Amino acid sequence: MSLSPNLATTFTNTKLRTPNNICDLSGMCSVCSDKCSGLCEIGLSAVRGFEVAYPYNTATQQFASEKKYPFDFSHFNINGRVFGAMGAAEDAEQTNVHTVDIACEIGYSRKIKLKAPIILPAMAKLNWPDYYSGAAMAGVMVVIGENAIRNDPNLKYDSDGKVVHAPILGEMIDCFRRYDSGYGDIVLQVNADDIVAGTAEYALKNFPLKTIEIKFGQAAKGIQHVAPVASYEEALLLNSRGWLVFPDPLSEEVKEAIDRGDDCQFMQYGRLPMWNESILEVLITKYRNLGAENILFKMAGYDVGDIRRVLKIASMNHIALVTFDGAGGGTGHSPCKMMNEWSYPTIELEKIVHTITNNIEQEGGWIPAIAMAGGIAMEDTLFKTIALGAPYIKMVGIGRGAMAAAMSGKVIGNLIQEGKTPQTHLAFGNDADTIFREAKQIKSRYKNNDAPISYGAIGLYSYISRLSFGLKLLMTLNRKFKLEYIDQSDVIPLTKEARKYLSDLSAL
């Protein structure tokens, strides 16, 4: 049986004519008919060409891998204990699930305190206002996605291609700051294009921004962003703003083709990072001199040598947090096949990172905090991720789940306010502030805020509240009342692959 999905996917809204009869190797129908109107990915590719390499409608949807990985976190169960209390008093009258402390902090000289070991990875689309606001309410970290300035209709550059006006960044940062209670932080992620445009410099000078995340890779994870350009005029505009456009709209060959009335299909490309230790050190120093209190890295499941190199750079430059994004999670701009067939799965990436970090520590290097992301949505996987990665993996990244909560909260809140309360929710009450369990508490906490609080933000807060409580339950089950006590003994291997995984970690 093939682990890869067949040539019918919701990524591209395609299907197979005979879904119950397929060739595993190719993913095609076992019988391809000359009467078929081209329902599958091959048929759509015959009509739309390279466009089908990417999911459709990425501006309003998010996507995740459809591949069936042979080994994942489900190969472990969670342990439990009935004696002792690590990090709390052995007293049944005062020690319980509410005693558990899941707060943590990251940073080198300037610490960022968090109410839960969670970072919400980079987003700059869909319901980003509630994504950022809900993170502030929950006291966790959240990241503004790369190329966020592209969404700004008021974007302006100077003659050198440097951004001088991008008020959307101020709006995004304000979504967090208006609910900021001293926990968590909002982070601006920059990729190779952002670095050329001076996005971080502009934001640090003009807005209450304290943290920058440098992304290794482009677009969703590992490859440069590619997008069709609608017209020659748009190609010229993008070129004037410093974006890479192919073919070059300023070339004489292209100008002559346009004059002849030929069809020119322009594509915008993101820059591939071409960095090294020296370039990154200069960049990090620049951002710190401009006021960045902490620098983060965002990395994915690249070659092991690259992972080792990034972790050593992080160690030498006192990077506060490195987030590793494994295969199986979600994104919005990766090519379809890259989402399904590229990179180490999260659990395998975690072992690689754990091993390399252990080696750096044995060499006497400073160890940054590390977060793992990629398919983590609920508290059981959150707990297993921290347990298997102890003591180095201290946090998790939750992207698709968090955005789903923000979108669901907004949609349900709007329906209730329109008098269209879903039948399934009527059992909870008759108005939004009763149906949303956390709404009255949140509104009371921020009663002095001028702006109304969105139910999308309340939805995200409520989701993180559930994850936090669920994590505390699992920690109580193991009699571990502080995050620092969670380790590999808190999970039970169910398969030979899982037993070997634990054996390899214990041998370090």
Description:
The structure is a single chain. This protein has about 500 residues and is of the alpha/beta class. It folds into three domains: about 1-55, no CATH class; about 75-225 and about 270-405 and about 470-505, TIM Barrel, CATH 3.20.20; about 225-270, no CATH class. About 35% of the residues lie in helices and about 15% in strands. The chain is built from 17 helices and 19 strands. The strands form six sheets. An eight-stranded parallel β-barrel has the order 5-6-9-10-14-15-17-18, surrounded by seven helices. It has a three-stranded antiparallel β-sheet with strand order 11-13-12, with helices on one face. Helix 2 packs across helix 13 (about 400-415) and helix 9 packs across helix 11 (about 345-360). The longest helix has 23 residues, at about 455-475. It is globular and about 85 Å long. The mean pLDDT is about 95.
Which features would summarize this protein structure in a list?
508 residues; alpha/beta; eight-stranded parallel beta barrel; globular; three-stranded antiparallel beta sheet; 3 domains; TIM Barrel; 17 helices
Assigned CATH class of the largest domain: Alpha Beta
User: What would CATH call the homologous superfamily of the largest domain?
Assistant: Aldolase class I
Percent of residues in beta strands = 5-15%
In this structure, how is the largest beta sheet organized? 8 strands, parallel, barrel
CATH topology of the largest domain: TIM Barrel
Placed side by side, the strands forming the largest sheet appear as 5-6-9-10-14-15-17-18
Coarse structural class = alpha/beta
Distance between the termini: 35 Å
Low-confidence stretches: none
Number of domains: 3
Any idea what the radius of gyration is? Answer: 24 Å
Give the overall form: globular
Share in helix: 25-40%
Count of DSSP E strands? 19
Mean pLDDT: 94
- DSSP summary: helix tally: 17
